[in-house]
Design brief:
Strand content of chain A: 15-25%
CATH superfamily of the largest domain in chain B: Metalloenzyme, LuxS/M16 peptidase-like
CATH architecture of the largest domain in chain B: 2-Layer Sandwich
CATH architecture of the largest domain in chain A: 2-Layer Sandwich
Oligomer: heterodimer
Distance between the termini of chain A: 60 Å
Helix content of chain B: 40-55%
Structural class of chain A: alpha+beta
Strand order of the largest sheet of chain B: 1-2-3-11-4-10-9
Shape of chain B: globular
Strand order of the largest sheet of chain A: 1-2-8-3-5-4
Order of helices and strands of chain A: EEEHHEEHEEHHHHEHEEHHEEHHHHHE
CATH topology of the largest domain in chain B: Cytochrome Bc1 Complex, Chain A, domain 1
Largest sheet of chain A: 6 strands, mixed
Structural class of chain B: alpha+beta
Number of helices of chain B: 15
CATH class of the largest domain in chain A: Alpha Beta
Number of domains of chain B: 2
Shape of chain A: globular
Strand content of chain B: 15-25%
Largest interface: A-B, 66 and 68 residues
CATH topology of the largest domain in chain A: Cytochrome Bc1 Complex, Chain A, domain 1
Radius of gyration of chain A: 23 Å
Number of domains of chain A: 2
Largest sheet of chain B: 7 strands, mixed
Chain lengths: 425, 423
């Protein structure tokens, strides 16, 4: 695989990963703005409204027909959170030219279709179509309200809301349901104009085409975006909890309880020297099938159906998420914290350490076999200028020592506990 | 090993059948970092009744296949899960209605991991204590699924549609049914189904194909075996058992599963029926479908709508699931549109375009080693070849879709399952 990077204008960049290993090409364009309550709803709604139709393909049926004609290219919006930034993207995956039955090129028309959808929307009175804004506003509100349906992710979402209250990190990347439903076409249009002119712009391509061909397709299809802009991307990190540990409990009509614990990493993020050790620490503690949480809390003590930990490498957080019986909340929490104490004491074997490091490096290596995951990682790296690039990070993880893992674990500070329990009666 | 060439897809698959009956398929891709192996048993949640060694039919409690999947990781020297995790790979497994699959992916130690996989799956080790303990873990999993409104809508749909076929049985069983499972039940089922002749091994990625076959030959028992005869209940009537079912749960808006009971494919026609059924789903439910767009614009459907075709021995069906303020109206509109299309015909332009899109989508999925291996195994259990899909597409006409609409999308074959918000 050959990696290329180019600045197309100030605040506008293109990364190309040239490889023939996939049957497809993936091209994405991402507009990144600060995640703020005032603008998050518009940021989430804009790509949905754009996906309803362009000037040339003014409704979903015609737009979808255009994608069908490109061998079922999947063109879709995504709203992602990276630290305290909201990333508004369009992703397009399409078959490589080699597999086109009529031998035609797919990259160029796919890029053109993306460009039209993003930059040339169907208009009404100089703004978005009112009916599109209203129905997408309703749909977005439904999606925001539907977060509660999946109790596992809801629990983590609620934990973050409580733990990071007052930080931009806790702002819902999808925005607010009420605002979404009340959004006026003119207001959304103004948000769209400032998104286009002010956001940081990132193009990422993976596939068989070379960098010149990709740059040419991008320049032809996204011309109006290729203007200079000053768009710094920032994410303040709270190294320590602001006060003593808080416990928040919600009651709902569920048969299984959920328990989530939020930690601050002591300021360690993907930009820091301590990051490789934190990755290994997380894998050892709760991030794999041979982790302490899995082996002890789930398997040996049968306290949880699942218990695992995960990191936010930009914001410097670790979250433990688990499913427990209502009667076992206290015991489960105690057991989860006991296991962390064990890591802090250095109470783990050399084999456990090696296995944890392997879990991390294997996962880093296997992500190179997925275009989607490569894009996810690359976007984060480009936005936050990580010092850790590909093989460097893998080598650093392989040489993490037990002392560094203990150090990473000792920096972890419990901030907030969230419990989802059943309703009485 | 034989080489199966798929020029249109740029793929080569190495293949052999071992003397013990195991079918082996290897899709070698040297440019990948990963290796993926998938060891599948033709045995799932629906196979409650089978012929034992003495030729007698045996009945087992719901959830055995899934329970067995959990306990298969146990070996005399501890859990294979941890042994493989120590090697840096995360083995996993799933049980569907008709299949149990064990798999791992990794970037190193492939041969050792493959040996471990083949060995723990083929050598059973159950104790009364470990079975007891697992009952607690699986009961939690069952409760978690019961809290999931999508799972609940789906299973209630199958219970409504099918009166005899064991597809209506929940794969994990119930807290009650799994309490009747003992170590003996597990041994019995393992003996009956976990036989090389009833299994397929698929691997893909940076692998030497011959080594896969050699290792399978070394690790697995050499005696010739064949597929296991399993029953699928009494004759299932063509019509659904109940046309409507509804319950409330804490959800923000009603969600639904709308099912259409299908007919059985002809011999050798499983993949073809699947492609026709999936294209028919696209004609009605995809973003290119006029019906979907009309209902979306009326605010009756949102982008959560999805549809799929599913088939196991003895039954086939189509499900559309999503959220709607008025699921019953959605059902009526779907039936009306299906009747119109089967009367007036599907637009040739739409059909050709959807076919092109479906082909491209299947090519795109081949990027995934997991998807490729699982599809290859599933299709081999039907006695067919997944990677023949480009040729099968060529043989499909819009009349095939119209015939399916005419036969399946009628009131008597349709059932609707709704999960409504409380109050």
């Amino acid at each position: 695989m050959q990696q290329h990077w180019k600045r197309l204008a100030d605040g506008v960049e293109l990364a190309v990963n040239q490889t023939e290993k996939f049957k497809t090409g993936l091209l994405t364009v991402t507009l990144t703005i600060p995640l703020r309550e005032e603008t998050a709803t518009a940021g989430a709604l804009i790509p949905e409204v754009l996906s309803r139709g362009s000037a040339r393909y003014p409704d979903m049926e015609k737009l979808s027909a255009a994608a069908d004609g490109l061998y079922g290219a999947s063109l879709g919006p995504a709203v992602r959170q990276r630290g305290e930034s909201q990333c508004v993207s369009f992703l397009c995956s399409f078959i490589d030219d080699r597999y086109a039955l009529d031998g035609s090129a797919v990259l160029e028309p796919a890029a053109a279709l993306m460009g039209e959808v993003l930059l040339d929307p169907v208009l009404q009175d100089g703004a978005f179509r009112r009916d599109y804004v209203e129905s997408e506003g309703d749909n977005l509100a439904d999606r925001i309200r539907a977060r509660i349906n999946d109790k596992r992710s809801w629990t983590v979402f609620r934990l973050i809301q409580e733990m990071c209250a007052g930080e931009a990190y806790a702002v819902d990347k999808l925005g607010d349901a009420g605002r979404a439903q009340a959004m006026a076409p003119e207001e959304l249009w103004a948000g769209y104009r400032s998104l286009l002119s002010g956001a940081k712009v990132t193009f990422i391509y993976g596939g068989a085409a070379g960098p010149e061909r990709v740059e040419d397709a991008v320049r032809r299809s996204f011309g109006p975006l290729l203007t200079g802009r000053s768009a710094p991307v920032d994410c303040p990190v709270e190294a320590e909890p602001k006060g003593p540990v808080r416990t928040v409990t919600d009651a709902m009509d569920v048969t299984q309880g959920k328990l989530a614990l939020g930690f601050r990493t002591g300021g360690v993020t993907m930009g820091e020297g301590g990051y490789p050790a934190l990755l290994v620490c997380n894998a050892l503690y709760g991030g794999s099938a041979n982790s302490k949480l899995f082996l002890n809390v789930r398997e040996k003590m049968s306290l949880c159906y699942y218990a695992s930990s995960m990191l936010d490498k930009v914001k410097g957080l670790m979250v433990v998420s688990s499913g427990v019986e209502f009667s076992q909340f206290d015991r489960a929490q105690e057991a989860i914290l006991d296991q962390l104490e064990a890591v802090r004491r250095g109470d783990f074997t050399g084999d456990e350490l090696t296995a944890a490091a392997r879990t991390v490096t294997n996962s880093l290596r296997s992500r190179l076999d997925s275009q989607g995951q490569m894009e996810e990682d690359q976007l984060t790296r480009l936005l936050f200028h990580s010092r850790w690039k590909g093989e460097d990070l893998i080598r650093a993880v392989e040489s993490v020592t037990a002392d560094r893992v203990v150090e990473a674990a000792q920096k972890l500070r419990l901030d907030t506990v969230y419990r989802l329990t059943g309703k009485e009666g | 090993m034989d080489q199966l060439e798929y020029t249109a897809l740029g793929q080569t698959v190495h293949h052999c059948v071992l003397p013990n009956g195991l079918r082996v398929y290897v899709d070698a891709r040297r440019s990948y970092s990963k290796q993926f192996a998938f060891f599948a048993v033709q045995y799932g949640g629906m196979n409650l009744r089978f012929r034992g060694e003495d030729g007698e039919w045996l009945d087992t409690p719901a959830g055995v296949a899934h329970f067995l999947e959990h306990k298969t990781f146990d070996t005399e020297d501890g859990s294979a899960l941890q042994r493989m995790a120590a090697n840096g790979v995360d083995p996993n497994a799933f049980t569907s209605s008709s299949m149990t699959g064990y798999y791992f992916e990794g970037v190193r130690g492939f041969e050792e991991n493959l040996r471990t996989l083949l060995s723990f799956v083929s050598v059973p080790w159950f104790t009364p204590e470990s079975v007891d303990k697992e009952q607690g873990i699986i009961a939690q999993e069952i409760r978690m699924c019961e809290d999931d409104p999508n799972d609940e809508a789906y299973y209630r749909l199958l219970e409504a549609m099918y009166t005899e076929h064991p597809i209506r049985t929940r794969v994990a069983g119930t807290v009650e049914s799994i309490s009747r499972i003992t170590a003996d039940t597990l041994y019995q089922c393992h003996r009956a189904f976990y036989r090389p002749g009833n299994m397929v091994l698929c691997a893909a990625g940076d692998i030497d194909p011959q080594r896969v076959a050699d290792i399978a030959r070394e690790v697995l028992p050499p005696e010739p075996t064949t597929a296991t005869p399993a029953g699928c209940g009494r004759q299932e009537p063509p019509e659904v058992g109940a046309r409507f079912t509804r319950r409330t749960m804490p959800v923000s808006m009603p969600l639904f599963a709308l099912g259409f009971k299908g007919t059985l494919p002809e011999e050798g026609g499983c993949l073809r029926q699947r492609l026709v059924a999936e294209l028919t789903c696209d004609v009605l439910f995809s973003p290119s479908a006029p019906l979907y767009n009309r209902l979306y614009e009326q605010g009756l459907l949102n982008s959560s709508l999805g549809s799929f075709y599913s088939a196991v021995p003895g039954c086939s069906f189509i499900v559309a699931e999503g959220e709607s303020r008025d699921p019953e109206l959605v059902r009526d509109e779907v039936l009306k549109e299906a009747a119109r299309l089967s009367r007036e015909g599907i637009s040739q332009e739409l059909w050709d375009r959807l076919k092109k899109a479906a082909y491209g989508t299947m090519v795109r999925r081949l990027n995934s080693l997991e998807d490729t291996c699982i599809e290859m195994a599933q299709t081999r259990f039907d006695g067919e070849d997944y990677l023949s899909f480009p040729q099968v597409f060529q043989s499909i006409e819009r009349a095939d879709g119209e015939a399916l609409l005419r036969e399946w999308f009628v009131e008597g074959r349709t059932a609707l399952s709704v999960i409504a918000p409380e109050d």
